[in-house]
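Technical annex, item 7. During the second reporting period the consortium partners agreed on a shared format for inverse folding records so that results from different sites could be compared directly. Each record opens with the tokenized structure and is followed by the designed sequence. A conforming record, contributed by the partner at site C, is shown below for reference.
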């Protein structure tokens, strides 16, 4: 299998701010690869460089065998890019939006009609043809944006937080569409801050402050969490939280309804017993058990500083 994207020390600064900091990636073809990270971690900046839209300050990248610095126009012609805001013309109809994009990619007239009909069928746009894009629902806008971004059948598709504005059912349908594209050989690079979406990716890079802090397959990343994740179920959640936070080797306590997810440093041997004992000493009735790490736990672990966090 070939490599769709290779980067070496890819860096972008804005003034003194380092938005993307020496990123090395090798992303295989015909896979979905995810960029995961909080707001401001550099996902959009990285994607815009890889699309040939933003010049790197330092480092290099090859996209579909093209050098992003030397051949940015060729890169732009060969990829598809769906932005966070979908980049549709609100005052144009669905048909006019698609037509406009077809012109950009200079599809010949005969082919154009066929391709537009195909895309309308595939992304269920036939009943909205004369509707202004601005009046579509989030899910409909997303389908139109995906149709536009894949008009020219790009081998590589960039999707920047594509599901932020749609409901869970639409998100599932959208991911089905993505897997169909991958089955046809398309490589997809998607940024997200949804852990359930990240889990569907073949490979992931976690970004924090412009730095890739972890990379691998979702399962591999979860299996490699060195901290012990302890779950506490109790009616006395506030008191339990305070008691657990007081333990020296606990670096994160997150509340999920009537449960606490407690992350304990690898150095804390017998984490379950220690947490259990601390709760008993505070006379808190609770069930304490070790649970397997989630992608969210991976993220908490790789971004942890010496400060302890509570959420
Ligand atoms: N054009 C710009 N000028 C100055 N700073 C920018 C610009 N674009 C992004 N940044 C900064 O770079 C960092 C990364 O931003 P961004 O790539 O948009 O992150 P994300 O997409 O992960 O939310 C942020 O601190 C942001 O404020
Ligand atoms: Mg962004």
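Designed sequence (site C submission):
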């Amino acid at each position: 299998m070939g490599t769709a994207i290779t980067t070496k020390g890819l860096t972008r600064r804005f003034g003194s701010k380092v938005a993307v900091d020496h990123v090395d990636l090798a992303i295989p073809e015909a896979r979905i690869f995810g960029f995961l990270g909080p707001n401001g971690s550099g996902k959009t900046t990285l994607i815009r460089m890889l699309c040939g839209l933003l010049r790197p300050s330092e480092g290099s990248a090859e996209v579909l065998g093209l050098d992003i610095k030397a051949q940015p126009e060729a890169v732009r012609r060969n990829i598809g890019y769906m932005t966070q805001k979908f980049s549709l013309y609100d005052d144009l109809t669905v048909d006019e939006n698609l037509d406009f994009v077809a012109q950009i990619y200079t599809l010949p007239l005969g082919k154009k009609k066929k391709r537009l009909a195909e895309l309308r069928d595939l992304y269920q746009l036939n009943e909205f043809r004369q509707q202004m894009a601005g009046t579509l629902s989030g899910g409909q806008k997303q389908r139109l944006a995906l149709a536009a971004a894949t008009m020219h059948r790009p081998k590589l598709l960039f999707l920047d937080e594509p599901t932020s504005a749609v409901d869970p059912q639409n998100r599932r349908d959208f991911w089905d569409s993505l897997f169909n594209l991958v089955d046809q050989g398309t490589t997809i690079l998607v940024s997200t801050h949804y852990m359930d979406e990240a889990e569907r990716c073949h490979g992931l890079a976690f970004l924090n402050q412009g730095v890739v802090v972890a990379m691998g397959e979702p399962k591999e990343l979860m299996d490699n969490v060195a901290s012990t994740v302890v779950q506490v179920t109790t009616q006395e959640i506030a008191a339990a939280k305070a008691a657990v936070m007081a333990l020296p080797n606990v670096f994160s306590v997150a509340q999920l309804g009537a449960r606490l997810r407690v992350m304990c440093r690898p150095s804390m041997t017998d984490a379950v017993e220690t947490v259990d004992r601390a709760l008993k000493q505070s006379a808190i009735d609770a069930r304490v058990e070790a649970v397997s790490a989630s992608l969210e736990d991976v993220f908490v672990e790789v971004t942890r500083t010496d400060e302890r966090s509570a959420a």
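Residues 225-310 form a domain with the Alpha-Beta Plaits fold (CATH 3.30.70.100). The chain has a mean pLDDT of 93. All partners now use this format for quarterly exchanges.
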